[in-house]
Specification:
The complex is a heterotrimer of chains A (about 190), B (about 575) and C (about 260).
Chain A lengths: L16 H30 L1 H8 L4 H26 L3 H31 L8 H32 L6 H26 L2
Helix pairs in contact in A: 1-6, 3-4, 3-6, 4-5, 5-6
Chain B lengths: L22 H6 L4 H31 L13 H36 L8 H21 L21 H4 L4 H29 L12 H32 L13 H35 L6 H14 L17 H11 L1 H15 L8 H24 L1 H7 L3 H31 L5 H27 L18 H34 L62
Chain C lengths: L1 H5 L5 H5 L7 H32 L16 H34 L6 E8 L2 E6 L12 E4 L1 E5 L4 E7 L4 E5 L4 E5 L3 E7 L5 E7 L11 E7 L1 H17 L1 H9 L4 E2 L5
Parallel strand pairs in C: 1-5, 4-10, 8-11
Antiparallel strand pairs in C: 1-2, 2-3, 5-8, 6-7, 6-9, 9-10
The chains are: A mainly alpha (about 190), B mainly alpha (about 575), C alpha/beta (about 260).
The complex binds heme-A (2 copies), dinuclear copper ion and copper (II) ion (CU).
One heme-A sits at the interface of chains B and C.
């Protein structure tokens, strides 16, 4: 039977299935980062002073820049969504690519930051603070990278062909989530000294 | 077809045309939920045989220490630990999870809610592929230099974190990678189960018309998703500790080894309910069908299940009473642990009350279903001894704990699964299994099962600890009467394993020669029984069913038939 | 209270294993209390279950009843037992708290102290020696042998040099995990002379299964003789050297267990 699967077109809750799934993905991701952040906090409370000394070596300026890039990109992705609602392929693609660009800034700054830190001798193994720092920001960076790749695929694979418009909204949700994780990481890793 | 609302939803995921159906595209790379369910089921069964074989080997060592074991040889301490560890891991992650949740969920959810597939068929296929990969990685880990991981399925660091401690430089990371992959597979599968049930139900199927087993699998998937996150984070940290040399769990370098225990058990306890709930669901369906009774207090069961799920997040430290967490915290965890007996008991009582006023037919499926209830009861109540922190000081890590959780796990992963196989086999393959062989298999499984674990309760209460290679090293435990009980348990196990051959034979013979089942051999109400056996691709042919009533309307007064399928139009309503 | 209760209890654990510490009786009584309360429910429920299976087996020409279980009265059939179970839960919780407090939280002032160091795969015990004070020159160090004086209140300090172990003396009903980087203290008071098993109760690697030791509970005279026999030889011997090497840098942890 070469028919379209009915299951995918049903929507008993009224929420499109794709968006529902993204929410569940985000839910489980929150718990992953939540577990990591909770572990970090637990350690930090137990080893307060020594960790503060270590934390003083993170580069708050770059962290702040990265916060700025991500927040701005969140705004852009909202514009992309708005454009997709209007089925305006050119605008949608423009905003998506701008979002990707800001993600690129983020990754670039991150790369610079990692390199300088490693040059100053702060590696994954220096101490537990740094282990957490690299694991948490690394995992987050990985999510940013994934988001960028998916956005590129959506812009070139779907929007260009004028299909699957709803995916812009879904990736937008995901991108907001990645931002919010950073909003938690930034004060924990860069500000609390 | 009336189902074309929300045209913008998920087109890209749905273009899976099945024009040419070669063997590969039909059975290996299929996106059909039934095939994926079978894949999970057969992989799970194969792993069950491995897990059972491991149990045989180490039980032989316990009964006849030092002797050469048939089909293995002599057993070294390192191999013993590795067998125990991987027996536990396999049985939980590669048997109970895939068979109960993934196989049953994949096969049943779309059929029972009246649609043609999962909402994300390709994600579903990916989930199985990752799962298969995880099983392969695990099996590879037995054969690498140093051998398979032997630090217990709980993998407490620092033992699990450093090769110099656990002497398995490759086994330990591979084990951890396998478990993590397995978890990812189930996260993907779980999202599918949840969204499918939320969004793709048949027309007319309201919340309380969903069969209990679907609820149970969905709630189990939600529990899994909500509990496993911290463990994934922990697994990443542990993997870094193992392979890169970080010190997240190394006390000497400022890390905290107890942290892992919290992350693990925060997942570990909800996990036991993750496998329990689908088993409850299976038994609920079977009890209703063969007692010809409406499920007693559907809503009460549903809300108790949700309550059970919530409560299960607040009991984890009952595994750590004596592991150095703040002793005052145990007051809280003892209380929550004892409280959790209430929702479980409500569900069990409701199942038992369902039998009241019934007309019980003792098919093999029903026998296994009833056996689940009876046996799990003992497993459940023994949790109360352990939940009482005072007694747990003595009982922790003894065979009492071991017997407790085998009295829960074996009913869940073995007995309830058998019930499910006997019950849904006609739907899966179009033929019934042989009832005579089935009953033979039933008694040959249940009696030896009790023969294995009742002695282990007594041994545990007598102070025998777990994961001990040879009790002859402990004079207090080396006595002849204790050794006799060990031998008795081992012989029971061999009998039990032997009877599984009956099952396998029955399974294979029935596939080919079993009595033709027809659409609805058990005269059941739920939607999977209104279509052909086995269901065609697309499940229901041209018209999708519409639901008019709940799933358990058996023996309704004033009706000639004692069942009332969910999709049958009420007479009052003109067609 | 526990002594009083014990007279009415079946004494299940004592039947399997003697009681050799003051608090063993508390755990045994608690075990029996739970056995009685939960056992009652277990047999009640199981009995009713079998009764129903028998009573409502399928018979020709008989139809099942239609019972939804949703009416108030029907629900009560399930709810009322649960109020009773709740009461049982409380009846278990109260003695549980008492036992837990007595064993794990309230550490009585010790007559003697002993340091227990676990490592892969041996136990090292530091006895206070003749002067009764730990950490002095006359400490007696022994491997896989713990010598105790009967009827003496002990405090133990438990450490681990590498991975998690667990210090378990079944006849004492005592168990405590050893955690690297922490010193965990607890107490016991032996009341029965004899020789018993000490087991490691936490998976700790290849030889976990044979990481046992023995505890010797001696009368005052025997114990004094043991101290006298061991003190001079050992304090100059290699044992002391071993002891100095073994002193790990650990901090007292608040989280005693
Ligand atoms: C699916 C599996 C499963 C299930 C369902 C359960 C259910 C329960 N478990 Fe179990 N448990 C395990 C699997 C499971 N467990 C495993 C695998 C381990 C060991 C892990 C390891 O260390 O390797 C373990 C270990 C374990 C421990 C730690 C022991 C230790 O290591 O020291 C504890 C302690 O509290 C515990 C308690 C409970 C309780 C209170 C329940 C409750 O949910 C049970 C509730 C049910 C009932 C109570 C029965 C029905 C009620 C009645 C008939 C009414 C009468 C009751 C009363 C009067 C109270 N379990
Ligand atoms: C689902 C979980 C599960 C199941 C089913 C079992 C089943 C069995 N287990 Fe296991 N066990 C664990 C989970 C499980 N176990 C865990 C978690 C541990 C702890 C590990 C650790 O300490 O780290 C453990 C540890 C453990 C020990 C302790 C070892 C030690 O501490 O030294 C022992 C000892 O006797 C034991 C025995 C058995 C036996 C005899 C069975 C028998 O019931 C097995 C019988 C086997 C079969 C009946 C398989 C037959 C299969 C088929 C015929 C295919 C068809 C299958 C399907 C339809 C699904 N187990
Ligand atoms: Cu030391 Cu087990
Ligand atoms: Cu638990």
């Amino acid at each position: 039977m070469a028919h379209q699967i009915i299951a995918t077109s049903r929507s008993r809750t009224g929420i499109p299935t794709g968006r529902l799934a993204v929410w569940w993905v985000i839910g489980s991701e929150i718990l992953i980062f939540g577990g990591l952040i909770a572990s970090y906090l637990l350690n930090r409370f137990n080893h307060g002073p020594s960790w503060s000394i270590e934390a003083a070596n993170t580069n708050t300026f770059i962290g702040a820049c990265n916060t700025f890039w991500l927040l701005t990109s969140s705004l852009f992705v909202v514009y992309a969504h708005a454009a997709s609602e209007r089925r305006d392929a050119a605008k949608t693609r423009m905003w998506i690519w701008l979002t990707i660009m800001l993600g690129g800034f983020f990754m670039g700054f991150k790369a610079y930051e990692y390199t300088t830190e490693i040059h100053h001798g702060f590696t994954l193994f220096t101490s537990n603070f740094w282990s957490f720092y690299y694991t948490a920001t690394g995992l987050h960076g990985f999510h940013v990278l994934c988001g960028m790749v998916i956005m590129a695929i959506i812009a070139e694979g779907d929007i260009k062909k004028g299909q699957n418009w709803h995916r812009v909204e879904n990736i937008g949700l995901y991108w907001h989530f990645v931002d919010i994780v950073w909003i938690f990481l930034f004060p924990l890793m860069y500000i609390a000294k | 077809m009336a189902e074309v609302a929300h045209a913008e939803v998920g087109h890209g995921d749905a273009h899976d045309d099945h024009h040419e159906q070669s063997f590969w595209s039909k059975y290996v790379f299929s996106t059909d939920h039934k095939i994926i369910g079978f894949q999970y089921m057969f992989t799970g069964m194969a792993m069950a045989l491995i897990g059972g074989y491991f149990a045989y080997v180490f039980r032989m060592q316990l009964a006849f220490p030092g002797n050469s074991i048939p089909f293995w040889g002599t057993l070294s301490p390192a191999a013993y630990n590795s067998l125990v560890t991987n027996h536990g891991t396999i049985m939980i992650f590669w048997v109970a999870m895939p068979v109960l949740i993934a196989a049953m969920g994949n096969f049943l959810i779309p059929l029972m809610i009246g649609c043609d597939d999962m909402v994300f068929p390709r994600v579903n296929r990916l989930s199985y592929q990752i799962f298969l990969l995880s099983a392969i990685v695990l099996i590879i880990s037995f054969f690498v230099p140093g051998g398979g991981f032997g630090g217990a399925w709980t993998a407490y660091p620092p033992l699990s974190a450093k090769a110099e401690y656990n002497s398995t430089p490759f086994g330990a990371p591979l084990w951890l990678i396998a478990v993590t992959l397995e978890i990812v597979a189930f996260l993907l599968g779980g999202i599918n189960f949840i969204t499918t049930t939320m969004n793709a139900r048949a027309k007319g199927m309201k919340m309380y018309d969903i069969p209990m087993i679907v609820w149970m699998i969905v709630i189990a998937s939600i529990l899994f998703m909500c509990s496993v996150g911290p463990l994934i984070a922990g697994a990443v940290m542990l993997l870094f500790d193992q392979t890169l040399g970080t010190a997240f769990f190394d006390a000497a370098a400022g890390g905290d080894p107890v942290l892992w225990q919290h992350l693990f058990w925060f997942f570990g306890h909800p996990e036991v309910y993750v496998v329990l709930l689908p088993a409850f669901g299976i038994v609920g369906e079977i009890t209703c069908t063969f007692a010809r009774k409406k499920l007693f207090s559907y809503k009460l069961i549903l809300y108790s299940t949700i309550g059970l799920g919530i409560l299960s997040f607040f009991v984890w430290a009952h595994h750590q009473f004596i592991s150095g967490v703040d002793p005052r915290a145990t007051y809280l965890f003892t209380t929550t642990t004892l409280l959790i007996s209430i929702p479980v008991a409500i569900i069990m009582f409701a199942y038992i009350a369902t039998l009241y006023g019934g007309s019980i037919r003792f098919t093999t499926a029903m026998l296994f279903g009833l056996a689940f209830t009876g046996e799990f009861l003992l497993g459940g109540v023994t949790g109360i001894w352990l939940g009482s922190s005072g007694v747990d000081i003595y009982l922790h890590d003894t065979y009492f704990v071991l017997a407790h959780f085998h009295y829960t796990f074996v009913p869940i992963a073995i007995i309830a699964t058998f019930a499910a196989v006997y019950y849904w086999f006609p739907k899966m393959f179009g033929r019934k299994m042989n009832e005579t062989l089935g009953k033979f298999h039933f008694w040959g499984t249940i009696i030896p099962f009790n023969g294995i674990f009742i002695p282990l309760f007594i041994l545990g209460a007598g102070g025998q600890h777990r994961r001990i290679y040879n009790y002859q090293h402990f004079p207090d435990l080396a006595g002849a009467d204790m050794q006799d009980m060990r031998v008795f348990a081992t012989i029971s196990l061999i009998v039990m394993l032997a009877f599984q051959l009956v099952f396998i034979a029955n399974f294979i013979i029935s596939l080919k020669k079993g009595e033709k089942a027809g659409k609805n051999p058990w005269k059941a109400n739920t939607l999977e029984w209104i279509t052909e056996s086995p269901p065609p691709h697309g499940n229901f042919g041209e018209t999708m069913p519409t639901v008019y009533r709940g799933p358990y309307e058996y023996s309704v007064e004033g009706r000639e038939q004692d069942y009332w399928p969910q999709n049958e139009k009420p007479e009052s309503e003109p067609s | 209270m526990f002594d009083f209760l014990d007279r009415f209890m079946p004494g299940i654990l004592e039947w399997l294993l003697p009681r050799a510490s003051t608090y063993a009786i508390e755990i045994d009584v608690l075990f029996d209390v739970i056995t009685i309360l939960v056992g009652f429910w277990f047999f009640l429920v199981l009995g009713y279950f079998f009764y129903l299976i028998f009573r409502y087996r399928h018979r020709e020409g008989q139809r099942a009843e239609y019972i939804s279980g949703e009416t108030h009265k029907q629900k009560q059939a399930i709810e009322i037992p649960h109020y009773l179970i709740l009461i049982c839960d409380v009846a278990i919780l109260v003695p549980t708290f008492m036992v837990w407090y007595n064993i794990k939280i309230d550490i009585p002032p010790p007559d003697e102290e002993v340091r227990v160091v676990s490592q892969q795969w041996a136990w090292t015990f530091y006895h206070a020696g003749a002067d009764g004070v730990l950490g002095t020159d006359d400490d007696i160090v022994s491997i896989n042998e713990l010598h105790l004086k009967n009827n003496t209140q002990y405090t133990y300090h438990l450490e681990s040099l590498d991975v998690m172990h667990s210090f378990s003396i079944p006849v004492f009903r005592l168990k405590q995990d050893a955690i690297p980087g922490r010193v965990i203290s607890g107490h016991f008071k032996p009341i029965l002379t004899g020789e018993w098993d000490i087991q490691c109760a936490e998976m700790c690697g290849v030889a976990h299964g044979i990481m046992g030791a023995r505890v010797f509970i001696e009368t005052e005279e025997e114990h004094a003789a043991w101290i006298a026999a061991n003190t001079p030889k050992l304090s100059e011997g290699e044992m002391l050297a071993a002891k100095d090497e073994n002193l790990p840098e650990v901090k007292e942890d608040q989280n005693n267990g």
